[in-house]
Amino acid sequence: MTSMAAESVSTILVSCKQTRFHIESPNYRELDIEGLNITVTSGEGGKASAKARGKAKASEGTEVLSNAKLRLKAGSRYALIGRNGSGKSTLLRAIAEKLIPGIPEKTRVAILQQTNASDANTEPLPGSSEAASGPTVLEDVIDKATARSELEQEIHALSDGVNGSDSLGALRALRRLRHERMQKRLFILDKDARLRSGARGLQARKALSEFEKQIAESAALVEQAEDEISSETLQAEIQEAADMLAELQIQVEPSRLADIESRAKKILAGLGFTDAYLTRPASSLSGGWRMRKALATALLQETDILILDEPTNFLDLLGIIWLQRYLQSIAESSDTPPTLILVSHDRDFIGLCTDLLIIKDKDLVYFHGDLPTYEAAQSERRLHLTKMKEAQDKQKAHMQDTIRQNMAQGRKADDQNKIRQAKSRQKRLDDRMGMNVSAKGGRFKLNRDLAGYHFSARSEIEIPPEERPVTITLPSPPDLRFPGPLLSLESVTFRYPPPRGSKTLPPPTLSDITLSVHIGDRIGILGLNGAGKSTLIRLLVDESKPTRGTITKHPRLKLGYYSQHAVEALQSLGRSEPDLTALSLLTREIQGDLDEGEIRGLLGSLGLPGRVASDIPVVKLSGGQLVRCELARILWKRPHCLVLDEVTTHLDYETVTALREALRDWEGAVVLVSHDRWFMRGAIEGLVDEGGSEDEEEEEEEEGVVRRRVVHRLRQGKMAVLEGGVQEFEKVMEKRVRKLLAD
């Protein structure tokens, strides 16, 4: 059967095949759904039925999946892979909100949705702790993960009724509580009726109609007059209220809550929350810290399917490694770990996953293994099929020549043996050419492995088309005319001014920093959040002035600066100018230095081609597209030095790979702040492959290129060179993570 759903006023349309038999899987951590179709529409509503809206708008919207199979194995960890705009977040929302009819309502799904770009700031809001009020961070996480406040409200209502002086208090409280629960059940049945069609849809709508009658009866009972309530009914419902109160109190008993609180503290500590932060009002947190709190809430929930959409956004490396190890430990320590679906651009981080789930050509492709293995397997398969096809084409051509010769000779000499031999070879050519292996990978047998009863020959060898790779080309910097460092910091110290009304100076954010950047240099800066990385970047790009020390620049320096808040700034600009597109924005800023064709070429080279650049307003671009737009604003000036602060956030892994390759070989200088270890190893240290077995140094020596590659660590305002590079910093963080997990 086919089912159709409309979510958020028809923004997501879902249909899938369902069995005609009502079979509920006892394992809610698994999904097995065939014929899945998902379409995203404009979101305009109407008075038409859900089915009519679905038919009308499925053709108008953007198709994300078409006849796909969604199969998740219990306890497996899936990395959801796909390019920006392929529909990853849409699929995750459809699963989390159970818009797909094949997902049982009892399945518990916890989701961390992709962080808004406006939530980029990971620093606390100055002075916000005094003004804010409400539950603390710890209380808020526990409440949202366990619905504790809802339980406490129910307990409070029943307690007042049972222990109050009103003889009907317990009955009234019980009936109100039952009615509220029935209203929640009504929402589920209503959604179920909209999700289903055909015979099951008719059955669901019938169940909804019957339940609506029960709701009406329940509402009447809530308002029932005292003289209409018999003493037997009163006594029975008082006892039922007391029993329900006892059950609810068991759920909030101190020993259970203490265990939940202990787990919550452990998770929050792993995500960077200090003891002082746990007691701060949750409303006082800035965007990045709110994201961490939401992640803690998702991890604390008891769930069957755990969905994490870009959880590493705005986490520092300590938090990333802790999360990676924590998710692995859940699978190892639990008999029934949740099924994990993870989206991340961080290739090192998704190494924790056991399987890949790839959105490709409106379909879902599965692979058991990691991303490097998948890429290698795809390359090997394409090469194998190419060689197989070339060999068969050569053999086929030879057989066709032989068949033509035999037929010609047989007809000329009226030799029936020759003619029969030619026909036999033709049949062999028709039946035996094609794939030499079955779908399961074994040797192909004609009487067993045909695609269907109506086929008479094996399928042709089809070489999968090689996807057009994402490429980024960085423009060569202009000649400096005379040598010298591009940027130079000498004994630089920076201290923020004291808070208003205070005479005590705060400690320096940066202390005695000395750094020089020459053309061709690769400078990486690592450190935890709050170590002073962004402050150092602002000094480099002249957005702040040092308290002490000197900063000098090359007179002809052209600097390109990508801020970690760039996407937020573009979104704000787009909201203020709703008709502004990427093309019109660059045309306005470039002011004639490049013509429209050159601007389109630049945007296209960064992944904003054609109508995406000229027709889609900036306010409607995705996070990854906004990153590309900001890079275009930087690169058209042909900078000598790129200062990049968390540039990989919001990008898909293929674009991150392309940017890594481009930065590694570029002639200019790069100063990079990033928590993405794989990206840092390639762009700064010059490592070519996953294991780092190849290095650029030999190639650079052959080409006569002098390129300095240095990774620095910022800690408590002090900067030191990491002789062991990114790997040394990883080892330090791994040691701290082991301690956090052991506590």
TrEMBL record:
ABC transporter domain location: 50-387, 487-717
An MF annotation (GO) of this entry: ATP hydrolysis activity
Record's keyword annotation contains Ribosomal protein: no
Record flagged with keyword Thylakoid: no
Record region (Disordered): 408-429
PROSITE patterns noted in UniProt: ABC_TRANSPORTER_2
Keywords annotated in UniProt: ATP-binding, Coiled coil, Nucleotide-binding, Repeat
Coiled coil: 208-251
Pfam family, one: ABC_tran
Protein name: ABC transporter
